[in-house]
Design goal:
- There is one protein chain.
- By secondary structure, the chain is an alpha+beta fold.
- Among the domains are: about 70-100 and about 225-255, OB fold (Dihydrolipoamide Acetyltransferase, E2P), CATH 2.40.50.100; about 105-220; about 255-310 and about 320-355, Efflux pump adaptor protein, beta barrel domain (Elongation Factor Tu (Ef-tu), domain 3, Beta Barrel).
- The chain has helices spanning about 10-50, 100-160, 165-195, 205-220, 335-340, 385-395; strands at about 55-65, 70, 75-80, 90, 95-100, 225, 230-235, 245, 250-255, 260-265, 280-285, 285-305, 325-330, 345-355.
- The strands form three sheets. It has a six-stranded antiparallel β-barrel with strand order 1-10-13-12-11-14. Strands 2-9-7-4 form a four-stranded antiparallel sheet, with no helix packed on it. A four-stranded antiparallel sheet has the order 6-5-3-8, with no helix packed on it.
- Helix 2 packs antiparallel against helix 4 (about 205-220).
- It is elongated, with a radius of gyration of 47 Å.
């Protein structure tokens, strides 16, 4: 009699079926979990895009830019000293290049002498006017005397007391006195025309000499060439003993605290860019741990290719469309630049927050004040007026005031 199968014992077929079912269940569970995870990732991606990506524009085609101030001379001269070389930091007003000042010193002394001479010459002209005024009064008295003499002789001639010849002489003396008066009046008018409406300090010859003295003083001052800005020296070309002409670049100075970024965005990214939008930037120099903040201050008037030395000529048969880029100027926070200095030409990564789109696309009004200025030339005539005043006081003397004609 055969033995029966125990309930706890299963046939191999049954066991294999159970394994398959368990495996399928695990696969379905894994697929379900993966599907849920993918859905979550998709939902997060959609949320991220609409919340962040749709309100930001990003580019790595961005570079640091800044002013490159050329140091030039305003006069011709020979270099005898320069106090700064490449990579040196100079401050505004600091002496950088010194020219030989011998010629300017000689000219300055000559113009001082010419001013003194002009003042004394003007005093002579005023004195000559006073002299002619006195001579005119003398001629007027002579005319009056000649008229009285003629009247007396006319009376005596009427009674036959004097000859007709003596009467004729009296008439001639009156005519000569009147002619002399006319001549003196004309001389007075000519001399008066030179000084009329002027004082010693406003005389044209004196003003010309004062102008020449100031010009010579400024030329002497300009033999010392100072830096117009704070910055780092670069591209030095000046050498000792070099004779330079006005306008020749001696070196360049880069103000490292006045830098900005030119970010070149694709034309498809410009739709939502506005002036004033906030910008975050990172540099390859410091990495992503150092974050710079800025804002858009303007968009360029054309694409980079439009302003290239050889602009693209697209009116050809084999024209291929190329995505163009427009330069966007981004102002940086000066405090952040001081803390982490940048250099012109460094690469930057730029992210613009375009959520606020109420700003201007093109700036309508110019800046109300100067963006850049230097004050090193404000006092070039500081001592010139003092020198002019001292020379005038030394040479004006105690001339009497002008008399009226």
């Amino acid at each position: 009699m055969s033995q029966g199968v125990s309930p706890d014992q299963k046939s191999p077929i049954t066991q294999e079926t159970n394994v398959i079912q368990n495996t399928k269940s695990k696969i379905y569970w894994i697929r379900g979990v993966a599907t849920v995870i993918l859905l979550i990732i998709l939902i997060l991606a959609i949320v991220w895009y609409f919340k962040y990506q749709s309100t930001t524009e990003y580019t790595e085609d961005a570079y640091v830019d800044g002013n490159v101030v050329q140091l030039t001379s305003q006069i011709a001269g020979t270099v005898i000293n320069f106090a700064a070389d490449n990579t040196d930091y100079v401050k505004s007003g600091e002496l950088v290049v010194q020219l030989n000042s011998v010629d300017q010193e000689i000219l300055f002394e000559r113009t001082k002498a010419e001013l003194a001479k002009a003042i004394r010459s003007a005093r002579t002209q005023y004195s000559h006017v006073y002299q002619l005024q006195a001579e005119v009064e003398q001629r007027q008295n002579e005319v009056l005397k000649a008229k009285e003499d003629l009247k007396r002789r006319s009376d005596l001639s009427a009674i036959g007391a004097i000859s007709s010849e003596e009467l004729s002489h009296a008439q001639d003396q009156l005519k000569n006195a009147q002619a002399a008066l006319i001549a003196e009046n004309q001389s007075l008018i000519q001399s008066w025309a030179i000084v009329d409406g002027t004082s010693l300090r406003t005389h044209p010859d004196v003003l010309t000499a004062v102008t020449n003295l100031r010009d010579a003083y400024v030329s002497r001052m300009r033999t010392s060439i100072s830096s117009p800005v704070d910055g780092i020296v670069t591209k030095r070309s000046v050498q000792l003993g070099q004779h330079i002409n006005p306008g020749v670049a001696l070196m360049s100075i880069v103000p490292t605290n006045e830098l900005w970024v030119n970010a070149n965005f694709k034309e498809s990214q410009l739709k939502h860019l506005r002036i004033g939008q906030p910008v975050e930037l990172t540099s390859d120099v410091y990495g992503r741990n150092v974050l710079y903040h800025g804002k858009i201050v303007g968009l360029d008037a054309g694409t980079r290719s439009a302003f290239a030395l050889l602009p693209a000529q697209n009116a050809t048969g084999n024209w291929i469309k190329v995505t163009q880029r427009v330069s966007v100027r981004i102002a940086l926070d000066p405090k952040e630049i001081i803390k982490n200095p940048l250099r012109i030409g460094l690469s930057m990564r730029v992210t613009v927050n375009t959520s606020d789109r109420n700003g201007e696309i093109i700036r309508q009004n110019a800046a109300p004040t100067f963006k850049y200025k230097t004050q090193i030339y404000d006092h070039e005539l500081k001592d010139a007026d003092r020198i002019v005043e001292s020379i005038i006081r030394e040479n004006e003397g105690n001339s009497p005031q002008k008399k009226q004609i």
